[in-house]
Amino acid sequence: MLLDLAAVSLGLVALVWGAERLVGGAAALARHLGMSPLLIGITVVGFGTSAPEILVSAVASLDGAPGLAIGNAVGSNIANIGLILGITALVAPFAVHSRALSREFPVLLAVTLLVPLLIAIDGHFGQVDGGVLLALFVLLLWWAVRTARAPDSDPLGTETEAEIPQIGLRTAILRFALGLIVLLAASRALVWGAANIARDLGISELVIGLTIVAIGTSLPELAASLVSALRKEPDLALGNVLGSNLFNLLAVLCLPAIIAPGPVEPELLTRDLPVMVGFTIALTAMAWGFDGAERRVNRIEGGLLLAAFLAYLALLVALALTTHAP
Fold this sequence. Notes:
By secondary structure, this protein is an all-alpha fold. The protein is built from 13 helices and four strands. The chain has one domain (2-323): NCX, central ion-binding region (A middle domain of Talin 1, Up-down Bundle), CATH 1.20.1420.30.
């Protein structure tokens, strides 16, 4: 058990370190390749902050632990809104200015509602479901490229440009490669340790994915959003979460469906997916200006998001202890 805990702890630390290098290197590399700052903010940053979830889910699915992979994706989306944006709003309340982000809210809400529907049809998460999510992911990338080519300026592009590391092409490639290698090794260690802990404690891999793994893989988003909010870059802080959640639902969640298709635990449909939908609806109501007006996520709303996340986490722990008590 000590070795498993060490693997999980070191894996989480390495995930945060590797993700920071990967995102910085990828953003700088994209700039050298001629991508606009807005496109980098919409796609590269979202992909980079979701890289831990992508690699962990891929490794878990290949290792025959799809529950851990699914829990990682769903739990990360819950943590991104409840934990990360909750803390961010408490530290520095923020308003949403970016038109690109305003257009992402209904897309995220629609995809969030689609995932439970796909699974609820037959209680099976299979390759057809994964194919639908993957196809939507490709469509999302196309839409993001088209949006970023718009001639008008957008605050997200301005904020992203200020955060892109000013490094040369060779350094950008080396930083990206180093981050990717560290993320691969960290994902391997984290999945191995988390799966062993689940077996030793008799806790389902889904719950481990929803808690330890999901919170751990969301740490890069927490760091990025906090720093962005403190630097008065609210659109970048929110963009980290919106982009990551879309990538988690499409690029991450399609992996267990395609690699290790099979039935899902009933609790996923009755407990975890409704919670994810609820958090997404709450964020949309708080931050999206339905009439085009600017909306501000204040400290009270941030506190409510964080309190709801902690309550959900406490419920998972209580249910795990009750179910597996001697």
